[in-house]
Amino acid sequence: QVQLAESGGGLVQAGGSLRLSCAVSGSIIGLYSMGWARQASGKQRDLFATITSTGSTNYADSVKGRFTISRDKNMLYLQMNSLKPEDTAVYYCWVVSYWGQGTQVTVSS
User: Fold this and answer.
1) Closest Cα partner for 16 from 26, 4, 6, 8?
2) pLDDT in tens, the chain (109 residues)
3) Given the DSSP bridges, would you call strands 18-25 and 3-7 parallel, antiparallel or unpaired?
4) Which of 13, 27, 77, 84 has a CA positioned 20 to 30 A from the CA of residue 1?
5) CB-based contact 88:107 (threshold 8 Å)
């Protein structure tokens, strides 16, 4: 059984930073790619950042240069800088077919 638990969300002003964390239980963490997705109100969930088991990363254009995904042992991280109001969403971590419960990020203008 794999469980994921995000933390670190909150309210921040535009231009600010947040760091999200995701604790992963289960033995698969070292074998697969992991990622972060987000879902704004009324929109679909979009996977915008991924990292492979060897550390290669990929980002959607909307966050490239502002967000950094990283992983260490049983943890997945997302450093978010230069936040914009359009980054407001519930953020989820992902591995294989598993999702966390999500953490709310709200960016005020």
Assistant:
1) 8
2) 889 999 999 999 999 999 999 999 876 667 889 999 999 999 999 999 999 999 999 999 999 999 999 999 889 999 999 999 999 999 999 998 899 999 999 999 9
3) antiparallel
4) 77
5) yes
Residue 76: both structure tokens together: 């997945």
Strands (E), the chain: 3-7, 10-13, 18-25, 34-39, 46-51, 57-59, 67-72, 75-80, 89-95, 98-99, 103-108
Strand partners, 6: 22
> How many angstroms separate the Cα of 8 from the Cα of each of 43, 76, 84?
22, 12, 17
